[in-house]
Amino acid sequence: MAWTMKRTKLDMHSNIGHHLPQELLVKVALCLEDSATFFAFLDALGSPEARGPLEIFYVLAQRHPRNYLWPVARLTSFNAPLMHVFSCIAEFCTRVAVADMYDLDVLQQIVQPTTRIEWRDIPDDTRTTEPLEPWFNQWSKLRITSVASHGRGRLGPFIQVLPRLHHLTHLDMSGLHNEAWLDRLLKFIATSKVTSLSLNVAPGDAYSNIRRGPLPRPAPTFSAAMVENLTLWFQTQPVTHFRIARFCYDDEASPTQLVDAIFHCPSLQVLALMQSTEAASLIVSPTGRTFPKKLREFHLVGCTISSDDVANLGAALVSSTIQVLDLRHSVVTACNRDGVKALLGALPRTCVRELHLTNCGLGDEFWTHAASLLTATPLSTVTLDDNAITNHGATLIAHALALTSSIHTIHFEYNNIGLQGAHNLLALSGATVRRINLSGNGFSYDHRVSLEREAQKRGLTLLT
């Protein structure tokens, strides 16, 4: 006898909330770690009664951005409306993001003792005339787990209270142009619970600084003691993220010990060096180098590396778990092109899915010999911005894209690609290609309109 089962369609608006006690309902909701899933769950509950105490999120989402409510409640500045919103949901918030010189008295009244507070931008003396020491003394009593500072002012009051931040695990610091501040910060890091560290001695974003050119003041030099403290941190803590910009050390420092500690750190997931050529060379020069087993992102930005170094890097990638390789502004001379070809040739045997080669001197001549290497790679995203690629180079790459089975996004911003090169990219791109970025190539309005129409017909997203 044949048995058949009728498949029933799940009604997303069924009254599922009545089948769960409110306590369990809240526990389930609080486990949803992204905004879209959290609010889809609330939608599926179907009624205020079913949503119970979580109905307040549903109501507030009609008037405020959902990602300002969950999974991190964002308080960008002190004002009554935002504080009123937060006070309504504070009991459910396990994470809160705050910025600037927030009213700490009000915040302490509402935030739960166990709530993790992420301070996205700490104040400095360029934004207030009030003394900062009393504010930071009170601030340090909160459960601060993450701190970012991108200012240009005095960091002394913040550095002073760092040892009191017993729950701090993420630290992102820019503007560390004072060697005394840097020394005190690294002494704290050596024995702290911090597992994610980003250091930039210049103010602002490190990548933007590279594009703007040399900084007005020289970078502070890392002393032997500072390098030792970084080394100790890698040896004793489960470090997951390390980013450093303009890493210059004095003659008495032992950077090789730091590099060895980095490569023996089993928990490291992201490693980034920007404008740190000497340190970058120590990392990629030795043959037979084995990357940490969990490393998934490797960034060398604005670091001049030799052709042999690039080839060594390609060989090391084969045994690694790296998925994102970023060499922006790092391969800038003609003599490096053989190394880049060796790197591209090694990619089919690697886990790399994203490759960023902005401003690496890879113009038409390079792609005459290397475009075919793109066909067999496992890459899904390729960035070739600012490489002086013209119609000829774009057409060579387009023929490679016709044969690729993996690339779905490719960026050509700020090259010299004209209308014919753009048409060839659209016409020849293979079935997997879904997004092409040609912004900054100087297309007229009429040409942009015609190209975007052509892309739409082919089911592609085109940015011009």
The gyration radius over C-alpha positions equals 26 Å
Low-confidence stretches: 1-17
The proportion of strand residues reads 5-15%
Provide the CATH top-level class of the domain at 362-464. Alpha Beta
The profile of the biggest β sheet is: 15 strands, parallel
List keywords for this structure.
37% helix; DRC5; Leucine-rich repeat, LRR (right-handed beta-alpha superhelix); cytoskeleton; 17 strands; two-stranded parallel sheet; 15-stranded parallel beta sheet; Leu-rich_rpt; disordered N terminus; single chain; 464 residues; alpha/beta
Question: Would you mind describing this structure in some detail?
Answer:
By secondary structure, the chain is α/β, with parallel strands linked by helices. The protein has a domain at about 360-464: Leucine-rich repeat, LRR (right-handed beta-alpha superhelix) (Alpha-Beta Horseshoe), CATH 3.80.10.10. Helix content is about 35%, strand content about 15%. Strands 1-2-3-4-5-6-8-10-11-12-13-14-15-16-17 form a 15-stranded parallel beta sheet, with helices on both faces.
Describe this structure in a few short sentences:
This protein has 464 residues and is α/β, with parallel strands linked by helices.
Write the layout of secondary structure elements.
Blueprint: H1 22-30, H2 35-45, H3 48-51, H4 55-60, E1 73-75, H5 80-89, E2 95-99, H6 104-110, E3 116-121, H7 133-139, E4 144-149, H8 156-161, E5 170-174, H9 179-190, E6 196-200, H10 206-212, E7 221-222, H11 224-236, E8 241-245, E9 248-249, H12 255-263, E10 270-274, H13 277-284, E11 297-301, H14 307-317, E12 324-326, H15 337-346, E13 354-356, H16 364-370, E14 381-383, H17 391-401, E15 409-411, H18 419-428, E16 435-437, H19 445-457, E17 461-463
Parallel strand pairs: 1-2, 2-3, 3-4, 4-5, 5-6, 6-8, 7-9, 8-10, 10-11, 11-12, 12-13, 13-14, 14-15, 15-16, 16-17
Helix pairs in contact: 9-11, 11-12, 14-15, 16-17, 17-18, 18-19
